[in-house]
Design a protein that fits this description.
Layout: H1 2-27, H2 31-38, H3 41-60, H4 68-87, H5 89-97, E1 106-112, E2 116-121, E3 128-145, E4 156-162, E5 169-175, E6 184-186, E7 191-198, E8 207-214, E9 220-226, E10 232-236, E11 252-256, E12 262-273, E13 276-283, E14 288-290, E15 293-301, E16 307-314, H6 318-338, H7 343-347
Antiparallel strand pairs: 1-16, 2-3, 3-12, 4-5, 4-11, 6-7, 7-8, 8-9, 10-11, 12-13, 14-15, 15-16
Helix pairs in contact: 1-3, 3-4, 4-6
Length: 348
């Protein structure tokens, strides 16, 4: 029996360290890839084996029931596994077969200002996965930014390239490294250039950069001015140097308006449920919980008009996972640091 217990102990430890390693690895994969990994058939077998090892361990070690630390770690791990399995896709399907109301496990909900919806969408296919037991209306989407950096403006060299299979074109650009007054040669064209003057970015102020260009002749001075309502200013090089036969007709110097980095974005919502309406707010790392679902601020967009993308996730199994981690942490703390010394240790 002692040999069996020893083998069981090493087996459980191997599963424990394997699960911890997989959890760390999954943290670097992202939510969707980690979900696919942990729900793959080999992983399902792994989690079931882990749960069975914990149950058999409690049965094979009766003394564990008299040690709060060991009992808490075992029961906490079992609760975490049970909660994770309950919240999985298979767990949701099993719950429906057992007669529980169907739930959408996860998806996204996209809203524009003033729009109301309860439909959860699959982000991969765009199909509707189901409807929430409540509706959300976007009252306002707000972006809070850091102060605009006062670094010298960037200067780009760009040419237009066709998008394969479409009639559209896009800019292929590269950043030009420059220092005020330093003359440089433009790669791919016999043009020398240097920046003589520039203004630093400022909110609601024009951005300008003066550049001196030359190609086997006298210098030509041009100033690019980007107004506050423009994304960039462009200087086409071909009209400046029409005699350069090897110059791409779309070749341009581009002065982009810098955008202040985002500090935070939030969605101000109205939750409509059971004929009642209440205001709510969702921010990054500050989700909303309503009617068995967590609503997270996932992303946003601005084309053709600003909109918010909310991630919807069912909370089925979440309470068990949370209580499991509490039990596991408390049991480990008691077993390794807080338990009273044994009589033999106390006698010493």
């Amino acid at each position: 029996m002692s040999e069996f217990r020893r083998l069981l102990q090493w087996f459980a430890l191997a599963l424990l360290f394997g699960g911890a390693g997989l959890s760390i690895f999954g943290a670097f994969l992202g939510a969707e890839a980690a979900t696919r990994l942990f729900n793959a058939p080999p992983m399902v077998v792994f989690w079931i084996a882990f749960a069975l090892a914990l149950v058999v361990g409690l049965a094979a070690y009766p003394a564990a029931w008299r040690r709060p630390g060991l009992l808490g770690m075992h029961l906490g791990s079992l609760l975490i596994l049970a909660g994770a399995m309950t919240g999985s896709g298979a767990g949701h399907r099993l719950a429906e077969k057992c007669g529980l109301p169907p739930r959408v496990r996860s998806g996204v909900l996209s809203l524009r200002d003033g729009e109301t919806s309860a439909d959860v969408i699959d982000p991969a296919s765009g199909r509707v996965l189901g409807a929430l037991p409540f509706a959300l209306r976007l009252d306002a989407f707000e972006i809070e930014r850091y102060p605009l950096p006062s670094d010298p403006p960037s200067l780009l060299y760009g040419v237009l390239e066709p998008e394969p299979g479409t009639p559209r074109f896009h800019w292929r650009t590269r950043v030009l490294e420059w220092k005020p007054g330093k003359t440089m040669r433009l790669a791919g064209a016999p043009i020398q250039w240097r920046v003589t003057e520039f203004t630093r970015p400022a909110e609601n102020e024009p951005l300008s950069l003066t550049v001196e260009l030359s190609a086997d002749g006298g210098p030509r001075v041009h100033t690019l001015v980007c107004r506050p309502d423009e994304p960039f200013a462009r200087l086409a090089l071909y009209p400046v140097f029409p005699d350069l036969t090897n110059l791409d007709r779309s070749a341009s110097l581009i002065l982009p308006r810098p955008e202040a980095p985002v500090r935070e974005y939030r969605s101000r919502l109205t939750v409509l449920r059971g004929g009642k309406a209440r205001p709510a707010e969702v921010r990054v790392n500050h989700p909303l919980h309503v009617a068995g679902y967590h609503v997270y601020q996932q992303s946003w967009g601005s084309e053709p008009e600003p909109y918010t993308v909310l991630r919807i996730a069912s909370d089925r199994g979440w309470a068990a996972v949370w209580m499991g981690f509490v039990l596991l942490g408390a049991g480990a703390a008691w077993h390794f640091w807080m338990r009273p010394p044994r009589r033999a240790e106390a006698a010493l």
